[in-house]
Request: fold
Amino acid sequence: MDYRLNFDAVWRDFDLLLSGLGLGLGLAVVSIFLGSFIGLIAAFAMISKNKLWRGIAMTYVTAIRNTPILVLIFFTFFALPQFGVRLGKIESFVFTLTFYAGAYLTEVFRGGLLALPTGLREAGLAIGMTEFRTKLSLTIPVMIRNVLPALSNNFISLFKDTSLAAAIAVPELTFYARQINVNTFRVIESWTVASLMYVFACYFIAAGLRHYERKLAIPG
Amino acid sequence: MDFSLFLNEAWIARGAIWDGFQMTVAISALAIILGTVLGVVVGLALVYGWAPVRLFVRIYVDFVRGTPVFVLVLASFYILSIIGIQLSAFQAGVLAITVFCSTHVGEMIRGALAAIHRGQIEAAKAIGLTFRQTFQSVLMPQALRQILPTWVNAATEMVKASTLLSVIGVAELLLSTQQIISRNFLSLEFYFMAGFIYFVIDFSIERFGRYVERKVAYS
Reply:
């Protein structure tokens, strides 16, 4: 074996890797934001008394959680056009990741809603708020502040899942790492740098979110 | 969309689908078994290891968990061959998922052992049990109880991660499906079928996990 480490090729394209990392973060942020709405609606459906809503939400969550995300990505990108739904690479990936995130967030929010004391909702109704208003101004904000640590973990795992976008040629970090690998044969260098970038990004995101969790946590 | 056309094509492709299914099961089973063996070592090293060993294992776990599995698979496939370790795509892929599995199992074991109250260890010491005895009859039974349901659910993660091997050319279920689609262009039907097969596998494992959870719960 003679393989000499030479990071030149990787540094030359480091801006590409950075832009890929940025795109991955962007994809994760958009997906968790949009996914939160799906998650909230599905979580309320899951704890509702209506059997139909419960059934729909349960089917959605179970189906998504038990299917590999790569299959979902390919399904959206290659199979939906048969229905006439034609999306670009990035839109298609965001669409998939949003629905994927939604299913995981449903579980998080459902747990959060069930953990709330019933007195909270009763207090809202007692001072004359409507059911909807109680949810919007009392239940949801308190619940979200309670589940922040779970949200952070979900965000980090979604960020790591953005690497799969490379499979449909979305130019994010893994895509560029593979491109550098194939073009320059700096195999060890490109993958080491790419994985270190993921590791450090995850580490800093985790540290940052931990900080906000402490700030936003309900005191006492 | 013509359903009889799909059934006909699926019947023609049954061999490929079955081979892909077997490959998926083989990858997942190997990764789970090897990953668990390695994971037990990782977990024990995290709790009882000599400080430098503990630090080294901690770095290993954090590095692997901070990297997407897809990157692990690609890195394992490309890097190992260039440093002179000749592995097939199948072996490189299984290795990557094994490493991924080992960090999960390692963290599970560390968490379970850490959750056991210190007082129990002190009590064991007080009645004169050696470390080995304490581990065998106090710590391990409780840790196993706690780990078992989580471990079964980690198996679903490994089945899902096995799809990533399709990208490095291992003909597991997803790649077989793609090959079938490239011949008959029934992308909607066949991707749906693949998704459904994965769903059935994972859902059964998940149900089994619930069952185990009830079985081992303290009543």
